[in-house]
């Protein structure tokens, strides 16, 4: 079977688009810096090889036929793809990453970064963003092994620095019918160990179980806070949950917040880290700068400005 050989060229479709967009051959010729006769010939040739009429002249204006409208719409997808492909080759030649990996500790509330990611998408030049959830030792290992381009973490491994971007908080919660919720005082650590604890699994292959919120010998392990919330809402055990996960249930009374003797909640700082340091690529540095600019600015401040890549530093 013979391979299909296109009858038309990208240049012919671009000329057709220019003629339509500029309202005629004369203005299109000025835009493309070509002669009007060459544009007439290109469109005529395009119609000839396709066997359909794309344009018809009405007065002094070239107008699309019904078939032409369909073909023009599809041609824009084609030329846009070619433009993006050529831009990608240029970006890769300049060291622009085809994809970047951002690892995010689960205690971090993602809501504030949604608008920041929208800004990144506008400037990303088509780079793909991979966002991966991580917990405890797993987050530290991504930093130490430089297996991610950006990391949002609440604990910095020795020898690494990060930019502070806020705080996290964990609250001790259970179902209102749970025995711990019936106590009219703060719960002791010993009392906690007598009940089932729902914990989030450490994402490291060999987790350090001396860290984090692992306390009770009786525990069920899940992979995400959402699953932990479902279990606790079902009356199964207690759990340390961040307010962005448990807040609505606490407010409507389907969860009870417990007071722990000596500590009503757990709180700490969150950091943005570029594990690869000076070796971080320009796209990763741009995303880091967008996140820092948005997360560190005071509430109610002005919208983000486009980030010049040349000015993005790696001093995280």
TrEMBL record:
GO molecular function annotation: DNA-binding transcription factor activity; transcription cis-regulatory region binding
UniProt name for this protein: Transcriptional regulator, LysR family
Record carries keyword Transcription regulation: yes
Sequence ranges assigned to domain HTH lysR-type in this UniProt record: 8-65
Family label: Belongs to the LysR transcriptional regulatory family.
Keywords: DNA-binding, Transcription, Transcription regulation
Domain of life, source organism: Bacteria
Keyword Cell membrane belongs to the record: no
Regions that span the bilayer: none
InterPro entries per UniProt: LysR_HTH_N, LysR_subst-bd, WH-like_DNA-bd_sf, WH_DNA-bd_sf
């Amino acid at each position: 079977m013979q391979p299909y050989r296109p009858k038309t060229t990208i240049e012919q479709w671009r000329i057709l688009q220019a003629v339509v967009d500029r309202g005629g051959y004369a203005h299109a010729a000025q835009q493309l810096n070509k002669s009007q006769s060459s544009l007439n010939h290109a469109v005529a040739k395009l119609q000839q090889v396709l066997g359909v009429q794309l344009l018809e002249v009405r007065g002094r204006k070239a107008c699309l036929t019904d078939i032409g409208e369909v073909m023009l719409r599809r041609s824009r997808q084609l030329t846009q793809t070619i433009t993006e492909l050529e831009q990608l080759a240029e970006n890769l030649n300049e060291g622009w990453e085809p994809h970047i990996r951002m690892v995010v500790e689960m205690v971090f509330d993602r809501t504030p970064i949604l608008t920041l990611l929208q800004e990144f998408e506008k400037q990303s030049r088509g780079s793909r963003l991979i966002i991966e959830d991580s917990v405890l030792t797993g987050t530290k290992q991504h930093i130490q092994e430089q297996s991610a381009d950006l990391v949002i973490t609440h604990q910095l491994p020795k020898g690494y620095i990060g930019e502070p971007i806020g705080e996290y908080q964990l609250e001790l919660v259970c179902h209102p019918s749970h025995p711990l919720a019936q106590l009219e005082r703060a719960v002791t650590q010993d009392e906690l160990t007598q009940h089932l604890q729902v914990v989030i699994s450490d994402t490291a292959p060999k987790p350090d179980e001396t860290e984090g919120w692992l306390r009770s010998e009786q525990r069920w392990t899940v992979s995400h806070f959402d699953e932990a919330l479902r279990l606790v809402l079902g009356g199964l055990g207690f759990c340390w949950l961040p307010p962005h996960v448990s807040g609505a249930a606490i407010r409507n009374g389907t969860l009870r917040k417990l007071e722990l003797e000596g500590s009503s909640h757990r709180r700490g700082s969150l950091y943005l880290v570029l594990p690869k340091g000076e070796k971080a690529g320009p796209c990763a540095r741009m995303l880091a700068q967008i996140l820092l600019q948005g997360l560190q600015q005071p509430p109610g401040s002005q919208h983000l400005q486009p980030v010049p890549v040349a000015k993005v530093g790696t001093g995280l």
